[in-house]
Amino acid sequence: MSKYLPTYLSKEDNLSAEEAQAIHDQTGRVLEANVVPFLAKAQRIMGSAFLEWRGEGKYILTPDGTKFFDCVGAGGVFGLGFAHPDIVEAVTLQARRGGLATRAGFIPGQAELAEKLLSLTPKSLQYVYYGNSGTEAVEAAIKMARVATGKKKLIGTHLGYHGMSVATISLSGIGMWRDGIGPYLEGTQLVTHGSLAALEEVVDSDTAAVVLEPIQWASGCKVVDKDYFKGVKALCEKHGAMLILDEVQTGLGRTGKVFAMEHWDVEPDLLCVGKVLSGGMVPISAVVYNQRVHKGERMRPLFNNSSFGGNPLACAAGITTLNLLSDRYFQRAEKLGDLLGESFEEIKSKFPEHVAGYHGLGLMRCLEFSNPLYGAVFAEWLRRDESIITAAMGHIPQFVRISPPFICEDEDIVALKESCLRVIGELAKYTPQELFSDFNKTLQKVQVELAKPIEDQEGALA
Fold first, then answer.
1. For residue 65, which of 54, 74, 73 has the smallest C-alpha distance?
2. Which single residue of 107, 225, 241, 242 has CA 20 to 30 Å from 339?
3. pLDDT tens figures, 172-198
4. Taking a C-beta distance cutoff of 8 angstroms, is the pair 347, 359 a contact?
């Protein structure tokens, strides 16, 4: 074993409780002091911190062997779970040949991956750009739309999410990420998602593109009317604007279709994909686009450029992922999504006072609670008592995102339903006032700790 490996990789997969705790504490100290001070400190004080040591199938495992069933997957990355053996094999073989590329020559993986992506998208989409993240894909798409149309105006939505750059946040409307980073990208405007009338008021001859998610996973997974996207497309065509669909989270099986746009039978000018495409192994994203967009960029072949985009490692992971999805997991995701929807219907019927509803399609779902505190407590107790990882949305905590991987068995969805029922049954024993009192005590501990000078904070590095 090389003496230059990271310290943690020199350790065994399974450790004693004492050694696991020592690594957990040291990791937490550094994260609190130097990386994510607020989050790491809050997790420690609230008792929700754990060490994400390795992944195996649908589980995250700690060094002492504790398993957590992953039902959020970094916003949908782990459709095929963790460390899928076929993807590990592909990436390992490519790494032996070389991980990245000079980009001076042809890269076979880029060509093969493009062919496979284009075989899954509408025939009107003929070209592929590779990036490394959803943010990068949406950035590239809006640049292409502006160049192709010669216009500047861009329309996003109030509760949309398209990434973490200034440009993509300018098209996103979630305050916890948006507030304080202005001035925003010139020419951007936000409307209500799902309202064609709102779009009709702002889309005009100066509009370069309308940027939409088919389903807003970060904001409750509500599904828009069946005629909405056809109306948006017609509006874009009327004014010469591009339609950009951000399917970074919804694409490649997550909603029960290969792409969520199939639910509305609409074809965008530019389609952004990512997350699942990585196979949970190597970051990659892509923009798939049509001839009209290509005409605008054809004399500027490097105006969208990336040192790491479309690298051989990422392409190897992406190709293997698409092969696996096409072989069996697209169909599997659709079946599991139906089962998850039925499970949520049962949960709602048994606890109508606590569960206001559920939203989404396929394996992209949110439970909506009647009280925001119920959602926050439910997600935490599900982790604490049932070892299931979900996500209560910080800006709208009454919505809890629950999105299992495609590799699940039917029994896993049934077990997930039973876990949810047990946790809500326990939650129902308390009034909102009692839950708030308990929650507020913990929150006050976090606030007191954060108010201390850095050198006095518990756990701070010397």
1. 54
2. 225
3. 999 888 999 889 999 999 999 999 999
4. no
Query: Which residues are 272's β-sheet partners?
Result: 246, 287
142/209 Cα distance (integer angstroms): 7
**Tokens for 272?**
């952004």
Q: Which residues fall within 8 angstroms of residue 175, CB to CB, at 6 or more apart?
A: 395
Q: Which two tokens stand for residue 454?
A: 């850095």
**Nearest by Cα to 248 from 279, 300, 287, 201:** 287
In the numeric block, the tokens 């970060």 are attached to: 218
What is the CATH topology of the domain spanning 85-326? Aspartate Aminotransferase; domain 2 (3.40.640)
Q: Which two tokens stand for residue 73?
A: 């997957």
SS3 of 82, please?
strand
The answer to whether residues 87 and 320 touch, using CB atoms and an 8 Å cutoff, is: yes
φ and ψ of 19, to 5 deg: -70, -40
Which has the closest alpha carbon to 103: 298, 307, 286, 285?
A: 307
Alpha carbon distance 423, 350 (integer Å) = 13
DSSP label at residue 57: B
Q: For residue 67, what is the enclosing H or E element?
A: strand 67-70
Q: How many CB atoms lie within 10 A of CB 5?
A: 9
For 315-361, the pLDDT digits (tens) are 999 999 999 999 999 999 999 999 999 999 999 999 999 999 999 99
∠ CA 210-211-215, nearest 5°, is 125
What does the block give as tokens for 287?
């923009």
Given the DSSP bridges, would you call strands 285-290 and 355-361 parallel, antiparallel or unpaired? unpaired
What are the residue boundaries of the structural domains of the chain, listed by start? 15-21+53-83+329-451, 85-326
Per CATH, the number for 15-21+53-83+329-451 is 3.90.1150.10
pTM value? 0.94
Residue 295, classed as helix, strand or coil, is: helix
Q: Which of 91, 82, 92, 117 is nearest to 407 (CA)?
A: 82
Enumerate residues 6+ apart whose C-beta is below 8 A from 326.
116, 120
Strand locations in 213-296, DSSP E?
A: 242-246, 270-273, 285-290
